[in-house]
Structures are given as structure tokens and as C-alpha cells.
Amino acid sequence: MMMDGGERIARVLAAQGVEFLFTLCGGHISPILAGAKAQGIRVVDVRHEVNAVFAADAVARLTGTPGVAAVTAGPGVTNTITAVKNAQMAQSPVVVLGGATATLLKGRGSLQDIDQLALFAPHVKWATTVSTVRGLIKTIERALLVAQAGVPGPVFVECPVDLLYSESVVRSLYPFQGESQRPRGWRQQVQAFFVGRHLRRLFAGAEKTRFDARRRVAAPEPTAAAVETAFSFLAQSQRPVLVVGSQVVQRPEAVEKVVEAIEALGVPTYLAGMARGLLGTDHPQQLRHKRKAALKEADLVILAGFPCDFRLDYGRSISSKAKLVSINRSSKDLKLNRRPSLGVHADPGIFLETLAAEIERDGDEWEDWQARLRERDVERNAEIAQQAAISTEYLNPVHLCQQVEEVLPEDSVLVADGGDFVGTAAYILQPRGPLRWLDPGPFGTLGVGAGFALGAKLTRPEAEVWILYGDGSAGYSLAEFDTFVRHGVPVIAIVGNDACWMQIYREQIEVLKDDVGCMLARTPYGQVVEGFGAKGLQLERPEDIPQVLRQAQDLARAGHPVLINALLGKTDFRKGSISM
């Protein structure tokens, strides 16, 4: 019996190592979901399509295998666009399978029929539609490869509904194609002829297509000349700084080798994006504060997978007198806003490994420089401790984050979804190891929390997964606690509830003297998630923090998703922190 199109897609996904399919059901894609389930792929349905793509994104980042989401046509597809753009800017290999109207009905005003390819083209590496059943297998296989190749990113594949069901079902949907329908008169006979011919083309040769074995795309490697030049720069440097970005961990299987390379190089190191946690906690080489000052004083800056965008003040954070080595998979990002002394178009992790293999260090080349930078870290930590001791109404967010840091186990994953509260947490919380920190990336998207946590917990079921929510960002995905409950995904969320969009409020009220659009309510978010079947905890007093955090951990270990509604007071800890 010939496979239907949904089963064909599912067999490709299973053969290529895809373990999860995230979705929100719809008639246009039902055969894909049924086929995936039959192939042993775990189908996880969410409450909003954007979170299906966020979850797929998290899986891709943590495993290196493309994350896959399937969404129904029209509004289902359009609901994903923010997450798709976020994946593009974060360089995550994600494949979105979009349902579509039947091939013969496209452009005729059928339900949920829009030009989906035009919508996605600017935001993905490849947007395509499949026009025959025999084309499904090779198109999906190619989509998974394209998502991983070069600069990883999202791919969109439109799958018309009449390619997904069996031929007998599809024929029954068209006039004069079923056994009980016979054309009458020449008009119906002409219509039946053309529809029949179209359907024969649709299914022709489908049984002859074959499945490829699983393939992983090789990462681009640096030239020997580039490594030699970087080596000479490093040998002459007195004050080098290494900034490590998300691209360095795009090969999850190689993170241990990258860590060994960084340690062998011995360069003072700042970690950013998905690279947070790469060196564990309190690594002697890692620095966490005053990065801008260090870059201004450095005579050599190595940007490993990190562009000169707003996070480096468009390159102005780096001294004009310093040599700049930029290693990036993206040729555009190599030279963004600042032309490097050496631009290396390659995977930055492989570059660091190759460079480290050439190094023979005495061990104290930059000891004084490292000590000076470390002293600044110590001073900043002392300032943070002082700010944590300031009394506020309800909870001081700095103190709360310090308490969370105290209870985080070694096997934990932190998901960052918010503005002011999450920005505060980033100064204090230390991911316990590589691939234990998930934030949206340079797009600065709010709403990633539940989707990222869903993908993270499914990928690492033994890990303790925390969502760090601002009360503003929590509103985007709170309904996914229903998903956590239904699918048995016991994450812990903590909402920093200061009853406003604090990151905006703080500057807006000072500059414009108006809080318009910034104020929220002290909503009892714990009660909200209890309505979905999760556990909700309320936290208002500093002395209750340790007990409530431990209670949340106990509930999660017992299999319950849990949310802590933490009421915050106002502080000036992050005053002047808005990025433009």
C-alpha cells in the first residue's frame, strides 16, 4: 500500500534524527502529525503556533539537529513569523512545515489561502512549495540540510493538503473523480479530464522515490594562512581579549573541545548569548563585568562568532588602535560596522581549536592583564552585593536573583524571557555549564519563554529547567502551562512581577514624564497557571525566598509544572540600560 504524503514526510524526519514535532493541529497538516506519531516521533501540540517554532528553535540549539514545527495554512503559518525571524537572527536551524490549500485551488479563494512564500522569503534561508507527492521526500531532506549549512537558519516548506492524504482520499475531494461520480455533458467531461490529468501528475512516480541516510553538514574550516596570522597577532599582544558568541556552540557535540581550546589559549574571555555557561561557573579565565572597559584597553580583540552590532556599540566599544580578529560563518557579519584586521570566514569553534593547537604558552603571558580585569569583576560583584542589600517594597530583584543562584543545581537550564528582571538576572545567575542558557538572541524577542523551556525540557528531561519571566513577557506564553501539564513537562517559572514594563518605564518617566503604556497590574500569575492544572506559588517577603524556591523545586521533581509569582520592588540597578 502506497504511503500517503504525511507518512513520507515523517519517515524523512525520523531517518534524519528528528525526535520531536511541534505543532498546533489543523486539517491541512493532519497526515503529517499522524505519520510522525506512527514513526515514533513525539508530537507536541502547543496553544499558539509561535511557540511551536520557539520550541523547535530550542531543540536545534541544544542538539544541533534541526528543530521541526508543522503548522496549518494561513493564520497558522502567519502566527509563526516572529519566531521564524528570531531563528534567522539567532542563526538556528529550524524547519517549518506549512500547510496549504490544494494545488488546484490555489489562488481561487479557498480557505486560508495566501501567498505564504512571499511572506517567508525575506526571513528564511529557503522558502519553497512542493508540487508533487514524489517531490516531498527530496524537498524535506534538502530543507534539513539547508537549515544546517553555512550560516544555520530557518527554512519554510509549503506542503499543499492534496499531497499529504492518500490518493483515494484526494480523488474523493475533487468532482467527478470518485467511483460514484460520473460526469454528465461535455462541460463536466472536460472538467473531469483536466482534473484527472492533474491528479495523475500529482501522484506519478511517487512510489519510486527513495530515502537518503542521515547526513550532517560539515562546518566551514579556516585556512592555514588565517590561523597563522592570528597566531602572530596573539604572540605580539600584551592585552588580548576573547569575546565568544553563540556560533561557537553551534556544534553541540564539540563544546568540550572548544572549552579545551579556550583554556589552552589562556586569553581573558567574555561569553555572550548561547555561549554563556561555556566555561562553567567561576572559571579563572572568564570575566563577566566591565566588558566595554576591557575592549577599550585591549590591544587585540578576537570576536569568535560575535558581530559588531548594538551589543558592541556598532564596533565603537573596541579601541581604534587594537587589532581586531573576527571569525564568523557569515561573511556579512565579519565586516559589520567595523572592518577587522583579520576576517576569517569559518566556524569560530573550529578556528579556536585550530589556533590552540599552534600555541605553546608559558602560562603567565597575560597574568597582570588578567588580574587587572579580574579586580574589576570583584569590584562590580561588591557593588551588586550592596545593591542587593537595599530595602525595597516587596522583593529586591537583585537579592532575589542571588537567592535563585544559590539553589540552582549543576544540571539546570535557564531560559531568559524578559527585559528588566531578566537583565538583572544576567548579571548574577551563572549557567552551570555549556548549553545551559537560552535567550532570544539579537532580535530581542519577548515571548520565547514557554516555547524554549518546552524544547529544553523535552531534550533534557533530567535537567531542572527554569523560565526567567518578566511580568510583561509572561503574558505572551502563559497559556502554554496547559501544554506543560498535558505533556508532563515540569518546568519552573519565576515571574518578576513589578506591575509594569520596567525597562521602558524607568527611562520613559525620566525623559517624557509620562508612564503611558507602561503600567501593568500585580496579577496573581500563580493562580492563572493553577487554572491550567499547574502549581502556583506566591512570593512577597524576602525571608520566604529560600523556602518558596525549594518548594518549587520539590514540586517540579514530583512532575508538576510550577510558577512562582514574585512581587518586586523598584530599583535603579539597570538605569540607562535601553539598547537602540
Integer average pLDDT: 93
pLDDT < 50 stretches = none
Going by helix content, strand content and strand pairing, the class is: alpha/beta
Number of helices: 23
Q: Can you tell me about this structure?
A:
The chain is an alpha/beta fold. 40% of the residues lie in helices and 15% in strands. It has 23 helices and 18 strands. Strands 2-1-3-4-6-5 form a six-stranded parallel sheet. It has a six-stranded parallel sheet with strand order 9-8-7-10-11-12, with helices on both faces. It has a six-stranded parallel sheet with strand order 14-13-15-16-18-17, sandwiched between helices. Helix 1 runs parallel beside helix 7, helix 11 crosses helix 14 and helix 16 packs across helix 17. The longest helix has 22 residues. The protein is globular. The N and C termini lie far apart (58 Å).
